[in-house]
Design goal:
Layout (H helix, E strand, L loop, with lengths): L1 H18 L13 E2 H7 L4 H6 L4 H11 L7 E2 L4 H7 L5 E2 L5 E2 L11 H6 L1 H13 L7 H33 L6 E4 L3 H21 L1 H18 L10 E6 L7 H21 L3 E9 L4 H4 L7 E6 L2 H8 L4 E4 L3 H6 L2 H15 L5 E2 L14 H14 L3
Parallel strand pairs: 1-2, 5-6, 6-7, 7-8, 8-9, 9-10
Antiparallel strand pairs: 3-4
Helix pairs in contact: 1-8, 2-4, 4-8, 5-8, 9-10, 9-11, 10-11, 15-16
Length: 383
């Protein structure tokens, strides 16, 4: 038990050092997999295990033992029972057992003024009933459905945290994960309110309304991103979706102003900010350099050397290791890629080793390759 406690202490410390701007003993390894990957790896039925969360104790224990990350290596964000109770249109389970996010449009273009005038009221009264069918009913029935769904969410979250804590204690791991989740105002409107197609149309026809709407929902996004006890060690996760699909001029005018305010607002509240930069953000590196110091930037794609040179002294860099090589390569080939990435990004600190994205299905990454890479980085990337 003393050995496990020492391992937890050491692993927790290397992450604390990173967040405090210090050079840690070694590069932290924060590789994770989606719970769907972990379920398949554990040999359980994908649908059954997501509906019966008690089965996930075995799943989380198994991957925590085997994958050799420094953290409990599972991510679960969506609980299908909660979405079924709500009658969700925005998150549905596909035939193979993966939760999908179909495009939804819960607001018409002519309703922007309502959203801008009172975003909270508009979301509660108009958007939610359009996304969740079970909330499109009488006030009494809506309250009952919402209470049931919220109870499922809370109970499920507590259960997963309990399983993760047990695995961390058992195998000497750090519980490194998000404490809150929010979205950039532009992404929030595009993802959940207007839909991708509607937003692309609005950018061309009514850009001024898009800008005003982003400003209107900004306070809600800041509030959502503040954990109960703000701390640089309790990270708020912000997945970023739309910028790779935007013209740089539209990004500059419509996305960037409120996104920058969001990050600055969270940092002012002593919140640790974790950005997931989906797709290609290379043309936006100079913009990113304007954000407050200490933000963690998880890149899916990019030139590691350019990212290191432009952002490495001010920010925490993670990601960039392609899971495609984990799917097709040999263990040695995978290790060689990891060595190249570490040699570029590790010098001077501010680097957490992670994949470019989370493996979702077992076919996405060979377990033996994940293990080989994690083991290599822990032993090689020592300061």
């Amino acid at each position: 038990m003393e050995d496990k406690e020492k391992m937890i202490e050491e692993r927790t410390q290397i992450f604390k050092d990173i967040y405090e701007g210090k050079i840690p003993k070694r590069v932290p390894v924060a590789t994770k997999v989606e719970i769907t990957y972990a379920i398949q790896y554990s040999g359980l039925d994908l649908k059954e295990a997501q509906w019966n969360l008690d089965l996930l104790e075995k799943v989380i224990d198994r991957v925590s033992k085997d994958l050799e990350s420094d953290v409990v290596p599972t991510v679960i964000l969506r609980f299908p029972l909660m979405y079924r109770l709500l009658g969700a249109k925005n998150f549905v389970m596909g035939s193979e057992g993966f939760i999908q996010h179909p495009e939804v449009s819960a607001m018409q273009a002519e309703e922007y003024d309502e959203l801008i005038q009172d975003p909270y009221k508009f979301i509660i009264e108009k958007v939610l009933p359009r996304i969740y069918e079970k909330l499109n009913d009488s006030a009494e029935k809506k309250a009952l459905v919402f209470a049931k769904a919220y109870r499922v969410y809370i109970n499920s979250t507590i259960k997963i945290k309990t399983f993760s804590s047990k695995a961390a204690q058992k195998y000497g791991l750090s519980i490194e994960g998000m404490s809150a989740l929010t979205e950039a105002p532009f992404d929030f409107i595009a993802d959940q309110i207007r839909g991708f197609t509607g937003m692309v149309r609005d950018i061309r026809k009514i850009p001024e309304k898009v800008s005003e709407a982003c400003e209107a929902v900004l306070p809600l996004m800041i509030k959502a991103g503040i954990p109960r006890e703000p701390s640089i060690y309790k990270r708020t996760f912000i997945p970023l979706h739309m910028p790779p699909y935007l013209r740089t001029s539209d990004f500059e005018k419509l996305f960037w102003p409120t996104f920058k305010k969001l990050v600055e607002g969270l940092v002012e509240k002593n919140v640790g900010v974790d950005l997931y930069l989906e797709q290609d953000w290379m043309r936006y590196l100079d913009y990113l350099s304007e954000l407050p110091r200490g933000v963690k930037m998880w890149f899916e794609y990019g030139d590691p050397l350019l990212i290191k040179n432009k952002l490495g002294k001010k920010y925490i860099i993670t990601g960039l290791y392609p899971i495609s090589i984990l799917r097709t390569g040999t263990p040695q080939e995978c290790v060689n890629v990891a060595r190249e990435l570490v040699d570029i990004l590790a010098p001077g600190g501010g680097f957490i080793f992670n994949f470019d994205k989370l493996p979702m299905a077992l076919k996405d990454a060979k377990p033996e390759n994940i293990i080989a890479v994690n083991r290599f980085v822990r032993e090689y990337a020592v300061y």
